[in-house]
Design a protein that fits this description.
Blueprint (H helix, E strand, L loop, with lengths): L2 E4 L9 E7 L6 E2 L4 E6 L4 E5 L4 E6 L6 E3 L3 E6 L45 H9 L53 H16 L2 E9 L1 H12 L6 H15 L5 E4 L4 E4 L5 E3 L1 E3 L2 E3 L2 E2 L7 H16 L13 E5 L18 E5 L3 E7 L2 E15 L5 H16 L2 H4 L2
Parallel strand pairs: 12-16, 16-17
Antiparallel strand pairs: 1-8, 2-4, 2-7, 3-6, 4-5, 6-8, 9-19, 10-11, 12-15, 13-14, 17-19, 18-19
Length: about 400
């Protein structure tokens, strides 16, 4: 009997995935555990392996297609020569799939759509239709929810009807021309989550500048000892110590239960820019790790993030988030709280500026820190005390290097 492989749910926020690359082709023998397809989710590109053995007989989701969770990806059969011509894959939760020998498939009626109506088609089908000047509105789709796939173009699709007269060249100003580009799954989730955050969380912000000269000088000293530690590594270590001392900042808010979540471990999410958006891999139990351990872990996580190779446990969760734009030369930034966490720290560049010491203007190095807080969890005084502790640690790094 033929059977269907469905789009898996690879993260808690995933509602659909984009088929990035097929590792098997129609007709291939597939063993249990073989990687059959790469799927781009809202967070990363993940390899999906076969759970059962069999022969890949039909691909429903072509490369570039967006497929809803639990919608068909492909069709397998137990033997290579089994007849699957009447087998129609259906999304999970719908009526059980039946071969044509048991239940005849209904005849599809091709209805010409009104001009301007939206036609659901795969990117490849659209490309081929454009190249061959075919009207997709005259084709019945066989993909998920009636989407027209490239294989459907073998039907007698009618040629596009050319306009009788071309529109005249505009002689008066009009709207600026543009092209539409679909957002990536990651960008869609970022937009949705942060819009919800800004709409539902009562934000307030606490900002201060610190003397960054001590950590900059210590970093240079470590470089001479061939220990490559970044300013960001110092900040993560100092944050871990400060959050341990101020557990009210290391908290989250459970909106469904209207309750505070007091985290018992310091797990710091570090924002990393990747193609199409950003992702926040986690330094787990950061308060119990040394500066060098944190530095090595962050480098490894950042590399995996940029390669799209992070596993879900490496970026799901966390108790606090750090977003540092200093490496891009930004003076300061104000970040949006990443729910359900209660706070996020935005960091600017460590800049060379004149400062006043002992009544004299001397060269200095300053860095801006901005703490964004959820006022349902954190009050201004608590945020101020936390920032004071963080400033003391960063301006005196000897205080946290021994922890």
């Amino acid at each position: 009997m033929p059977f269907t492989v469905y789009m898996p749910k690879l993260s808690p926020t995933m509602t659909e995935g984009t088929v990035a690359k097929w590792h098997k082709k129609v007709g291939d023998r597939v063993e249990s555990g073989d990687v059959i397809v790469e799927i781009s989710t809202d967070k990363a590109t993940v390899e999906h392996a076969a759970l059962d053995e069999g022969f890949l007989r039909a691909i429903v989701g072509n490369e570039g297609d967006k497929v809803q969770v639990n919608d068909p990806l492909c069709v397998f059969s137990e033997t290579a020569d089994e007849d699957i011509s009447g087998f129609t894959p259906k999304p999970l939760g719908q009526k059980k799939e039946e071969p044509a020998a048991v239940k005849a498939a209904p005849v599809k009626e091709v209805v010409k759509q009104d001009v301007g109506a939206r036609v659901m088609a795969s990117p490849l089908a659209k490309k081929l239709a454009k190249e061959k000047n075919l009207d997709l509105a005259t084709v019945a789709g066989s993909g998920p929810r009636g989407r027209i796939m490239s294989r459907d173009l073998s039907q007698q699709a009618a040629p596009c009807v050319q306009a009788v007269a071309q529109a005249p060249i505009a002689t008066t100003p009009s709207a600026t021309p543009f092209t539409l580009e679909p957002v990536t799954p990651m960008r869609h989730v970022i937009g949705t989550r942060l819009q919800e955050s800004k709409s539902t969380i009562p934000h307030f912000y606490v900002k201060q500048e610190i003397d960054a000269a001590p950590i900059a000088a210590l970093r240079e000293e470590l470089k001479r000892l061939e220990k490559n530690v970044t300013i960001n590594d110092f900040i993560i270590k100092a944050l871990a110590v400060a959050l341990k001392k101020h557990p009210e900042i290391n908290s989250g808010f459970d909106a469904s239960k209207k309750s505070a979540m007091r985290y018992t471990r310091v797990d710091i999410c570090v924002a990393v820019t990747v193609p199409g958006g950003l992702i926040t891999p986690i330094v787990f139990d950061a308060s119990r790790k040394s500066l060098s351990q944190i530095s090595q872990e962050v480098k490894l996580l950042a590399a995996k993030a940029r390669d799209g190779k992070l596993s879900p446990p490496e970026y799901q969760g966390g108790s606090f988030t750090l977003s540092n734009l200093g490496m891009f030369g930004i003076d300061e930034m104000t970040a949006i709280v990443n729910p359900p966490q209660g706070a996020i720290l935005g960091v600017g560049a460590a800049s060379d500026v004149p400062v006043v010491k002992n009544g004299q203007i001397v060269p200095g190095k300053r860095m801006s820190l901005t703490l964004s807080c959820d006022h349902r969890l954190i009050d201004g005084a608590e945020a101020a005390q936390f920032m004071r502790t963080l400033r003391e640690l960063l301006e005196n790094p000897i205080l946290f290097l021994s922890e």
